TrEMBL record:
The keyword Transmembrane helix does not apply. Involved in the biosynthesis of a nickel-pincer cofactor ((SCS)Ni(II) pincer complex). Binds Ni(2+), and functions in nickel delivery to pyridinium-3,5-bisthiocarboxylic acid mononucleotide (P2TMN), to form the mature cofactor. Is thus probably required for the activation of nickel-pincer cofactor-dependent enzymes. It catalyses: Ni(II)-pyridinium-3,5-bisthiocarboxylate mononucleotide = pyridinium-3,5-bisthiocarboxylate mononucleotide + Ni(2+). One of its GO terms (molecular function) is nickel cation binding. One of its GO terms (biological process) is protein maturation. This is Pyridinium-3,5-bisthiocarboxylic acid mononucleotide nickel insertion protein. The keyword Lyase applies. Its EC number is 4.99.1.12. It is an enzyme of class 4 (lyase). It comes from Pelosinus fermentans JBW45. The gene is larC. Keywords: Lyase, Nickel. Belongs to the LarC family.
Amino acid sequence: MKTLYLDCFSGISGNMLLGALLHVGLPEEVLRKNLSLLPVHGYDLIVTEVNKCGISAIYVDVKLNDGHDHHDGHDHQRHLSDVFQIIDDSQLSPKIKADSKKIFLLLAQAEAKVHGVGVEEIHFHEVGAVDAIVDIVGTAIGLDYLGIQAIYTSALQVGKGFVKCAHGLMPIPAPATTELLKNIPYYSGETSKELVTPTGAAVIAALSTGHGNMPANFLSKTIGYGAGTWDLEIPNVLRMHVGEIKEESVIAKTFVVEVNIDDLNPQIYPYVMDKLLKMGVFDVWLTPIIMKKNRSATMLSVLVNDSILDQVIALIFEQTSTIGLRYYATERKIAMREMIDVKLPWGKVKVKVSAYEGKICSITPEYEDCKIIADEYKIPLKKVQQTALEIASIIIKGDAIPET
């Protein structure tokens, strides 16, 4: 499984992500060509190689043609619907559009909660400006080009002190950034600068798989550095590892966390399950049960690696009505898994190929990829899935793929 690990010892921002993606193999011409599909004009994309405390890194800047750049505080207000319209009106792939909109939606929700208004009332200010659209969509372009299937991050150094925002001086991390970093480990450090921007935090909140540590079975293949704006006592860079997580068919020790609940609003369960999955648990499921006094209840079960067991337990206590839970060690065997890209007449989807003891046991098109294409082209989801399965089977057998 092709994986990114982001070492955020000096924070993370949109342009740091773009610079790092270019450094690890995203061709600049591919980035520029895809960005040109956006109906956004009046800017220059400046890509330079810089040195931060002895580390060579790529710095990306968006300079507006009116003489302003994205560090001058110039205010370009847009609503969420405006940003979505820009993305939808482009000829970018459905996956890039979906990832970009997911990031912007989390940004809008965070700002709306902080300011106590509706999502569509939010003026994005810096976030909605041309530079942020380029940073966010450019990041989605890079992840899609590199075929990244999972993103893990270290704990984030956010900096300390205060930062000047459109609404005045705000503590670091800024309120919207803090909202986005819920359930993501971070620390202040000794640097009196804003090291994690709302854009950087939103990308992690929207797209990352796990936080805190490099996965134990991660093998780093390529390392790149994206430069931030500041010149600090430490290298102001984001270190990006591109590698593989090998999922061997071996016994893997994990934990099962279980909790019986009979007094929780059913609407909350999907919310909790989504948060657990974003945290990086292996699986989460619900089972209807009967408790004492013949009361109907639900058992929430989570399969989790011990590295995030404490975080999972804390989230369950925080988000549900339970006052107690149980957990126990278990063992599992997993098949070897590989994701392959399959080109359909309507676009590209990922297909998971699983094998146990050297024999293929499952070929599964990724639901979300197929759903995006079905929605985009107004065709039945089952047709997309069946076509992906047929072409993937041909690829695996090594046969020629018929013209479509």
